[in-house]
Design a protein that fits this description.
The chain has 422 residues and is an alpha/beta fold. 20% of the residues lie in helices and 36% in strands. The chain has 8 helices and 28 strands.
């Protein structure tokens, strides 16, 4: 059994893990290892052949594989070692990582710092409680995307989609372009959970109806799916009798939410958030366990990969500072979800002490519903310390604010709360 020390071990070779590795290397740490369970780097981006990536970070529009290749090339240029086709079995709070692959067998790494960058997974059909048989023809949108884009298979010819997440919207367009008929998209909420641009480009442009406040209440079919029944729901998300609509179809795609891959995080006994389902972190992306950091979709589900990369670069630099004993000192205060706000990240913030210089802190969150011409206000205890007007806020798009360093420097030892006031 191989056992060795590594300064920074990164779990996940997708966009978060790659950016974290680049950030750590550029901060001066050379002993870095990236572990990826798939047989190649890049994560989910390899199957995202549509464009729209890179506009914020690279100022040019790319496909998913093109975006991933930029970071893969940079990692190789910097000489950062990677281990693909390798499964991490466990991480403990002392940063002892156990992994296995078919070449080296069982490996144990004693890491100076660990960065959790495992991404997220799709919520499965079994979690939805839909009546009907367990017939074939029901796929997650991501699985269908892999079949079509990487394997050249068409899941079905008559398709209905449950959930308006971005992958589902993109697959509505993709299936249409491949010759399938997409009958509609049902969304249980009164608003889409995807980006507005995807509603326009993937549904409106192709005449695909979106049924808001609707859900699938039954699937029909014995061996293969033969149809679905949808119904309108009330404010408690319960089906309303008499509103049923029936669709004959051979395929149901599910785009009903993403869940951070949190098993390793839980195994390390880091404190978890009930709202984001990811670890609770401070403004340096460090979890409740010293030297264990988290970034990307394992921390909270993002809309754009550009933001994943930006966040993960910061996490990599923070891990490097931890290794070099340059972690910021300060008094920890909590950041709380206030009125209309869900899933503030970071959940903790350091007030600098002993002459430490403050830095700007990006605070990200999702609104609990659609707001127009609302104001985001931040309170430190009872004192309002920040306010900004937002033209529109929607749950399908991550919102963010920047707390400037002069605000951070003058914080009082009291919780921070983020509110939306309409």
């Amino acid at each position: 059994m191989l056992e060795k020390h590594v300064d920074i071990l990164i779990i996940g070779g997708g966009p978060a893990g790659l950016a974290a590795a680049i950030g750590a290397k550029e901060q001066g740490v050379d002993d870095i290892l990236v572990i990826e369970r798939e047989d190649s780097l890049g994560g989910i981006l390899g199957q995202c052949i549509h464009n729209g990536f890179g506009l914020h970070r690279f100022k040019v529009e790319m496909t998913g594989p093109e975006y991933a290749q930029m970071d893969i090339d940079k990692v190789r240029e910097l000489g950062i070692p990677t281990l693909c086709d390798t499964m991490v079995l466990s991480v403990d709070e002392n940063r002892r990582v156990v992994a296995i692959n078919k070449e080296q067998g069982l490996m144990v790494f004693n890491a100076g710092a660990v960065i959790l960058a495992m991404g997220c997974r799709e919520r499965p059909f079994g979690a939805l409680g839909i009546a009907g048989t367990r017939c074939s023809g029901i796929f997650s949108a991501g699985t269908a995307q892999k079949y079509v884009n990487l394997m050249g298979f068409i899941p079905g010819k008559k398709v209905f989609i449950l959930g308006s997440g971005d992958i589902g919207l993109i697959m509505a367009r993709r299936m249409t372009l491949q010759g399938s008929e997409v009958l509609g998209v049902a969304e249980i909420m009164p608003y889409s959970s995807g980006l507005n641009r995807n509603i326009v480009q993937c549904l409106d442009d192709y005449g695909i109806p979106l049924y808001l406040k609707h859900t699938v209440i039954e699937v029909r079919g014995k061996e293969r799916l033969e149809g679905v029944t949808i119904a309108e729901v009330d404010d408690m998300r319960k089906p309303i009798p008499g509103t049923e609509k029936h669709f004959d179809c051979d395929t149901l795609l599910l785009s009903v939410g993403l869940i951070p891959e949190n098993e390793l995080s839980q195994g390390a006994n880091v404190e978890m958030s009930n709202t984001t389902s990811g670890p609770i972190v401070d403004d340096e992306f460090q979890t409740s366990k010293a030297g264990i950091f988290a970034c990307g979709n394992v921390l909270h589900v993002h809309d754009l990969v550009d933001f994943v990369s930006d966040e993960s670069m910061k996490a990599g630099k923070a891990a490097a500072n931890f290794i070099n004993k340059k972690t910021k000192k300060g008094t920890i205060i909590n950041m709380l979800d206030g009125k209309g706000v869900r899933g503030v990240v970071p959940q903790k913030l350091k007030i600098p002490v002993d002459g430490e210089d403050a830095e700007n802190v990006q605070v990200m969150f999702r609104p609990d519903k659609v707001y127009e011409n609302a104001r985001v206000k931040v309170y430190n205890g009872d004192n309002e310390i920040y306010s900004v007007k937002k033209r529109i806020l929607a749950p399908g798009e991550m919102a963010d604010i920047i707390l400037k360093k002069d605000i951070i420097q003058n914080l009082q030892n009291a919780p921070i709360r983020v509110d939306i006031e309409s």
